[in-house]
Amino acid sequence: MSNEPATVTKSFVQFEQEHIMPIPENKRTGTNWSIFAIWVSLNMMPLAVVTGAVASGSYGLPVGWSILAIVAGNVIGAFGAALHASQGPHLGVPQMLQARAQFGYLGASLFALIAFIMFMGFFASILIVAKDSLAVVLPDFDGTLAIIIFAVIGVVLCVFGYDLLRKTMTWLSIIIGVAVAVSMIMFWAQPEVVTARDDAAFNAEGFFTMLAIGVVWQLAYAPYVSDYTRYLPKKSGPKTAFWSTYLGLMLSSVFVMSLGVLLGAANPDNPLSALGDYLGPIGLIVLLIFAVSSALINGVELYSAVMNGLTVLQSNFKVTVTTKVRVWTTIVSGGVATLIAIMGQGDFMANFEAFLTLLLYVLIPWSAINLVDYFIVHKGEYAIADMFMPDGGRYGKWNGVGLWSYAIGLAAQVPFMITPLFTGPMAEPLGFIDIAWLVGFAVTAIVYLVLVRTVGAKREGSVENSVADEA
């Protein structure tokens, strides 16, 4: 790594050098405030607003019930995401790369690929919503051109890497936070907005679906929270990473989605346009801020997509990860996601709701395995060097315990699933309340713990000696 540039400038920003490798202690420049700011700014975007609008707009829930469902879902989901984040300072590696300890060197690449696809989907989704925000302010501006411009901004930020992203998110969190706060105050001052839908009524399907959406919104961060908390000094400990992540994710999500609830009640068909309809020039300014901030925020989504893409390349194609490889991976990934956004901008809302639902089903078993393995089985003690060995070291190329546990947990959700393409046989008896994620988490956690205590105990030797050797 010595032949790579140390910095772009000494005073402005450091250029990403470590990529997917462990972060040395002398390069861990993160703070509890910077981590908090990253998660706050990530949620302060129109995509979160549109997600909140689903409760009052699509499901017709009253404002109060909508916000209650959103609060419950985000409180639960953020707890899981923050537990994943607490691993970062201790291990110093990206979140999904750590999956090599649970699924093997090659097995983990399957989950890195899933995470890569997920972040590409979020990158494309944010581009579409940013374009929609701009369209309300500048209706004659070409939508495809807007998507391309926003994508280029995100790609440039991602090319520079963590340090520029961290500094950008810190300032952005303040600017957007003020804009959202002003919007919320002005909307609550207009009672006709809260009572805009005469047909609004509580329904269990809508309430529990929104609760599940809140959970998946937070768990969608789980595959990359450690990508950023790994930059915290090891001495800061897990509590700093946990609370900075939990409060940043939960508070900002509830805040912005609640604004979405009000917009969905005011205009179910086009929630974002309600900002301009009800707030006039101020609403248009907020939409413009949303559009620009989304382009900046997207750099974070693409960064994590690239971290997972590099993990897949290293695992399966023996690619040596250098700055050149990371930069080209960033450019190609950004270009592909931009094409997806351009082609998928027509029926966005329906596609996005289905995307969120599928994410929940896929992520839940992985989350259960990771948390059980880290906090119960290994208690945070891993042989980091083995994670980078082509043969997987003590973790092997394929870890059957983790893979079978994941498959069983995924299968356990099928009878309870509710998707546009498939509805499980248990959905109707339960009133179409989605509890598949609860079943999946519980089954996966139990199965993994049982298998790792029996089959896994015979397969894997003690980690402590290797960890001691590394130290």
Automatic annotation (TrEMBL):
<feature type="transmembrane region" description="Helical">
    <location>
        <begin position="36"/>
        <end position="57"/>
    </location>
</feature>
<feature type="transmembrane region" description="Helical">
    <location>
        <begin position="243"/>
        <end position="266"/>
    </location>
</feature>
<dbReference type="GO" id="GO:0022857">
    <property type="term" value="F:transmembrane transporter activity"/>
</dbReference>
<dbReference type="GO" id="GO:0005886">
    <property type="term" value="C:plasma membrane"/>
</dbReference>
<feature type="transmembrane region" description="Helical">
    <location>
        <begin position="63"/>
        <end position="83"/>
    </location>
</feature>
<dbReference type="Pfam" id="PF02133">
    <property type="entry name" value="Transp_cyt_pur"/>
</dbReference>
<keyword id="KW-1133">Transmembrane helix</keyword>
<feature type="transmembrane region" description="Helical">
    <location>
        <begin position="103"/>
        <end position="129"/>
    </location>
</feature>
<keyword id="KW-0472">Membrane</keyword>
<feature type="transmembrane region" description="Helical">
    <location>
        <begin position="430"/>
        <end position="451"/>
    </location>
</feature>
<comment type="similarity">
    <text>Belongs to the purine-cytosine permease (2.A.39) family.</text>
</comment>
<feature type="transmembrane region" description="Helical">
    <location>
        <begin position="201"/>
        <end position="222"/>
    </location>
</feature>
<feature type="transmembrane region" description="Helical">
    <location>
        <begin position="325"/>
        <end position="343"/>
    </location>
</feature>
<dbReference type="InterPro" id="IPR001248">
    <property type="entry name" value="Pur-cyt_permease"/>
</dbReference>
<feature type="transmembrane region" description="Helical">
    <location>
        <begin position="169"/>
        <end position="189"/>
    </location>
</feature>
<keyword id="KW-0813">Transport</keyword>
<protein>
    <recommendedName>
        <fullName>Cytosine permease</fullName>
    </recommendedName>
</protein>
<feature type="transmembrane region" description="Helical">
    <location>
        <begin position="278"/>
        <end position="304"/>
    </location>
</feature>
<dbReference type="InterPro" id="IPR026030">
    <property type="entry name" value="Pur-cyt_permease_Fcy2/21/22"/>
</dbReference>
<feature type="transmembrane region" description="Helical">
    <location>
        <begin position="141"/>
        <end position="162"/>
    </location>
</feature>
<feature type="transmembrane region" description="Helical">
    <location>
        <begin position="355"/>
        <end position="377"/>
    </location>
</feature>
<feature type="transmembrane region" description="Helical">
    <location>
        <begin position="398"/>
        <end position="418"/>
    </location>
</feature>
<keyword id="KW-0812">Transmembrane</keyword>
